[in-house]
User: Fold these one by one.
Assistant:
Number 1:
Amino acid sequence: MKNSLLLDTGSGGRASRRLVAECFFRHFDNPLLGRMDDAAFLEDIRPPIAMSTDSYTVTPLFFPGGSIGTLAVHGTVNDVSMLGARPQYLSCAFVLEEGLSLELLERVTADMAKAAKEAGVLIVTGDTKVVPCGACDKMFITTTGVGSVFADPAPSGHNAQPGDAVLVSGSMGDHGLTVMRSREHLSFLTDVASDSAPLNKMIAAVIELAGPVHVLRDPTRGGLAATLNEIAEQSGVSLVLEEEYIPVRESVKSGCSCLGLDPLYLANEGKCVCILPAERAEAALAAMRNFPFGAEAARIGEVTATGKKPRVTLKTRIGGSRLLSMPEGMPLPRIC
């Protein structure tokens, strides 16, 4: 690990994994943390609960389809949901820059209240700190969520098995490209908006209607490519994807083409990856499509036995194939 941090250390790619392994895991390592799922499964508590925490530093604070306030609720609600849990309570901590407009702060908190109501969770405790001008960029928010686990067994990144189907609940890359448009004032990207949304009710329906699933993850930082590489490594399997079946909006495709980006590496904030036995894939897709957030749900590939090492392979539309490797660096940091 280098002696100082770079922005790509927070990208969700290889640099992030090195920091976690060489610093945090070296000091904090324990069996619960070591599972590296979106939330911790606290099975010694009865009934078991899932717990997750996340910090939000996105800039700009407001963008088409959401704000730092909606992200702070949706992101933590979704992480708790990925363990087959029903999110119930959130804590919320603000770090605010001296001189911040109270009107802006109220807009953010109003967004958070609306998002929490939509997700059916309560914000029950919190903290506020004000730091000198220049000590932070306007506003940082940290939320922690807890919820009761109802899935049995609980999904985990370690549970993918050869023969499983790989599903996504909707189009890839919407959030990452939207934040880039807003930050860089890219006027030609007119038809993009963040997909920020709470997935807890949709996830509950998938598990109740399709039966237990092996893996649930939300492809945030590093996008679909980073998330599937993490799952492949955790489970010791490989994954093969079909490019033609991966949903990507035309506006995102054209924007990425202009900017030299790959939508499979861009962040999402209202989508999930679901891996489960192939015979239950259609039931899971039907459950997703009953919700507006899952209308574009699709089966995009399958889990295979690994060869020399876990890998993610993309079969292209023209009949070739390429590796989807873990991203090194990030085209746009601070997207959540």
Number 2:
Amino acid sequence: MLDWAQQFSILLFLDNNHYPGAEGKYECLLAAGARHIIGDDTTAPLALLRKAHQQHKDWLFGHICYDYKNITEPKLTSGKPVKTGFPVIQFFVPETVCYISRDCKTFTIESCGDTGVVYEQIMNQADNQLQEKLPALQFKKVIERHAYIETIQKLRTHIADGDCYEINYCNEGYCEKAAIDPLSVFKSLNRLSPAPFAAYYRLHNLYLMCASPERYMRKTGSRLLSQPIKGTARRDPDPATDELIKNRLRDDIKEQAENVMITDLVRNDLARCCGTGSIKVEELFGIYTFPQVHQMISSVSGTLKQDMHFTEALRCSFPMGSMTGAPKFKVMQLIEQYEQSRRELFSGTVGYISPDGDSDFNVIIRSLFYNADSRYLSYQTGGAITYDSDPIKEWDEMQLKAWALERIFAS
């Protein structure tokens, strides 16, 4: 499916990577080609999105950048330079949608063309499973270790002064003049670090290669589900040691404090668009294992108000609290003050809206971003800072999250 779709200049591929615990209808889902584009040439793009869905009654696929915050909160700004260049928000009505069911028993094609022809083309696609060797690349950090640690101390002072409780602080790794094949990069990343919300996104000359373990929001009928991640621990090749690390994460008071603050923030966000009394924390401090890390994940659900369109749930909750901190408005001001790179698509979201109005969106983390014109390749990683944060450990956690993104380019 993905190899076949390379003929299109706009496509989005979403992959569950056979994770059994992640709610969802599809093992993988592909949208290729664009019949209509819903762009960001307005101060109310979600209203356009709602109108487009009502008009077309069709699939919508696309993204929302972190900088959309400046539309939901007009007093916020983004002053750092644009480097990759994704539009703040853009969705498209695809020419063709293909998906494999979660149980991997059915393969469905929906197309404005001949579905039989599409099926034959996909099934006759040359098997391209051989691992292609990627170029050896060296990434530079925008904020070096000493400055990163120094900034965390300043953020701890803000917390001590009562400005905020928790703040997500991130750093950029980048490589200039990188000549890569984005699809080969995604395949390598997906092999090394398979994740339940993986995504490969092409928007003309712009590419996202994503290995995200985190769901932003899923809508099924009137039910909304958000699953914020806060709490990370490394994996160990020794099973006994790995289990010990996992248990320590589960019982870590600091990690629990970070997680519960964001879980409470998500509860408050959902309460703005959900019925009174419908908000539930379905799981608190769940520990989930991925190839490189263990993660602490909580699940919060609610019932969308009858008089509220599903795009309002995006407006009320974006950007996701796990990538900001609390209180949200203040920490977004501090993020703009202390981070040295514009987040752009990082800590935004990609996903879909189905013809019947259901949707699923991820959190764009553990991802590479590539501008094929400028050949600028980058990623951003970081973590939640609280007053109890150890700056050196925070640097190490940021490095741990970046490991797989750099490892695929090791010589």
